Amino acid sequence: MIIFVSVLLKDIVEQQRDFVWERPPCCPRCDHYKVWSHGFTERIFDGFNIPLLLKCYRCPYCGCVITMRPNTHFSRFQSSKDKIFFFLSERLKTGRWPPAQSHSRYRHWLRNLKKQTKAHLTDRWDKGLLVAFDYLLSIGHTPVSSSI
Ligand SMILES: [Zn+2]
Q1: Which of 63, 72, 84, 148 pairs with 34 at a CA distance of 20 to 30 A?
Q2: How far is the CA of 35 from the centre of ligand 1 (A)?
Q3: How far is the CA of 96 from the centre of ligand 1 (A)?
Q4: Which residues surround ligand 1, an ion (CB under 5 A)?
Q5: What pTM does this model have?
């Protein structure tokens, strides 16, 4: 299970294992009153040449493993939400992607956003994909996820 928290990636990189993560007050799955430290997991994020150490906790009651993750990023995405939105908005407004080494990742984002919009907001959605992005986000969906 992932708990999204407000943290700065720069601080995590600089402080590594010394970074102070906020401990969840209880297990998000079973509400057990305490979770135990469960080490770290490495995750790659855009803009950093080393993996970042994300804190994990484990519930002694139900065994749930909880990973703390920056709320600036969707689950399973290396790019921040802001970067994804920026790239999509540039493409949709100008017809061109911003300069980058490879555009394949960005094309996946656009294709997935169209898929998510069609699945959750129907074919008749006429407010544009960027509004759909915000709306999907507001109802708890990852707008560029490949899975519906
Ligand atoms: Zn639990």
Answers
A1: 72
A2: 8
A3: 47
A4: 27, 29-30, 32, 59, 61-62, 64
A5: 0.89
**CATH number, domain 2-70, options 2.20.25, 2.60.40, 1.10.3470, 3.20.20:** 2.20.25
Q: Are strands 52-58 and 36-43 parallel, antiparallel or unpaired?
A: antiparallel
On whether the CB atoms of residues 12 and 67 are closer than 8 A, the answer is no
Round to whole Å and give the CA distance between 144 and 74.
9
CA-nearest of 123, 113, 7, 16 to 69 is 7
**Domain extents in the chain:** 2-70, 81-138
